[in-house]
């Protein structure tokens, strides 16, 4: 005799979460038993609301509950700078640093021929065709320093070359708290190239 | 500027799962973005159905979608044996071994004065008052060999003494694949006491 149907069904459904196998899903299900009905209802509602409301901003591609995102709508931001990132996660993360007050452009992916991801699969044409004007003074490329990130950076650099706009990228370097002898040689050589005169 | 409301709300709601912090909840939320609306709907529904339907069997205390569980309702089972376990998880696990064809009684907890769990908080009176009759030939105590498990075992032993019924417990021993020198001494001494004559 196995567990009740509603239990087995929930375990199966919870297994769609990344890294959640049968054991973890069962642990989740047992823990939900201890919760009030209202709490489960809230979770159930949050899932539906999330899936119903969330979309990509029609300007920058970032996640938003509206047609355009709060950042694109914010008139107090510096509209002369655009920071290009891989996904919305990066936007929310950079926002936490409070370092940057410009606009973003979310590619929603990186070029990766191995995974069948070509430039036309990314949110690039909207950037080039609709967002770059004489008002834009700088484009900051803030992609991960992976192979896919480098390839995408180079591609963007080429595409943006035709436009009269300054293009920069984040500096590569030794991460704070990192130990030089444990970094991989490519990282160190990148930090070498990006070295900064200090006196 | 932070993430959209529906996103933040979902992350918050997912954090009620055990061991799920903000980072993991965010990972779950991003992964749900890639899923079809129908899949999220299924998950959302499974949560509600689970919480609505699941209850404890009025006879043995095991989780069930009905008033009484499939095991208690199964006329082909041996109704002369009752196996006492801590929770429903144990029932489903023992069922997987296909070793046992009797009935169960789920305590839904163990005696633990430290956590304010006394005998009257467990599903014991229903066992003693309603389930033990002359038809019951054996009661098998299958509790974890923890301090709480031992205390509960001893308590049950005392309560069941007054009834004319054979009471047994699972044997303690070296787990298959275990290494004697890495077991704790109490475990080894228990295995010593439960040793079996083999020739």
List keywords for this structure.
alpha/beta; 199 residues; 4-stranded parallel β-sheet; two-stranded antiparallel sheet; 42% helix; 6 strands
How would you describe this protein?
Two copies of one chain form a homodimer. With 199 residues, the first copy, chain A, is α/β, with parallel strands linked by helices. Helix content of chain A is 42%, strand content 11%. In chain A, a hairpin with a 6-residue loop joins strand 1 (55-56) and strand 2. In chain A, helix 1 (5-14) packs across helix 2 (22-33). The first copy, chain A, is globular. The N and C termini of chain A lie far apart (76 Å). The mean pLDDT of chain A is 91. At the A-B interface, helix 1, helix 2, helix 3, strand 2 and helix 5 of A face helix 1, helix 2, helix 3, strand 2 and helix 5 of B.
Secondary-structure element series of chain A: HHHEEHEHEHEHEH
> Per DSSP, what share of the residues of chain A sits in E-state strands of 2 or more residues?
5-15%
Instruction: Kindly report the average pLDDT value of chain A.
Output: 91
The total of helices of chain A stands at 8
Overall, the morphology of chain A is globular
Could you tell me the radius of gyration of chain A in angstroms? 22 Å
Strand arrangement, largest sheet of chain A?
4-3-5-6
Oligomeric state of the chains present here: homodimer
Structural class of chain A: alpha/beta
Question: What share of residues of chain A is helical?
Answer: 40-55%
Major sheet attributes of chain A: 4 strands, parallel
User: How many strands of chain A?
Assistant: 6
Biggest chain pair interface:
A-B, 53 and 53 residues
Pick out the low-confidence regions of chain A. Answer: none
Distance between the termini of chain A: 76 Å
């Amino acid at each position: 005799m196995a567990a009740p149907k509603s239990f087995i069904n929930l375990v199966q459904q919870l297994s769609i979460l990344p890294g959640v196998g049968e054991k973890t899903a069962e642990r989740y299900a047992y823990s939900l038993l201890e919760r009030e009905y209202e709490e489960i209802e809230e979770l159930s509602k949050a899932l539906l609301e999330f899936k119903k409301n969330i979309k990509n901003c029609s300007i920058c591609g970032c996640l938003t509950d509206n047609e355009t995102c709060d950042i694109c709508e914010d008139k107090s931001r510096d509209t002369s700078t655009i920071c290009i990132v891989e996904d919305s996660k990066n936007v929310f993360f950079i926002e936490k640093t409070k370092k940057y007050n410009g606009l973003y452009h979310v590619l929603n992916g990186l070029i990766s021929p191995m995974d069948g991801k070509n430039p036309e699969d990314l949110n690039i044409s909207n950037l080039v065709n609709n967002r770059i004007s004489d008002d834009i003074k700088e484009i900051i490329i803030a992609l991960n320093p992976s192979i896919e990130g480098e390839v995408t950076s180079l591609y963007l650099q080429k595409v943006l070359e035709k436009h009269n706009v300054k293009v920069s990228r984040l500096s590569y370097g030794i991460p704070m708290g990192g130990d030089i002898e444990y970094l991989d040689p490519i990282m160190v050589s990148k930090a070498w190239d990006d070295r900064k005169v200090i006196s």
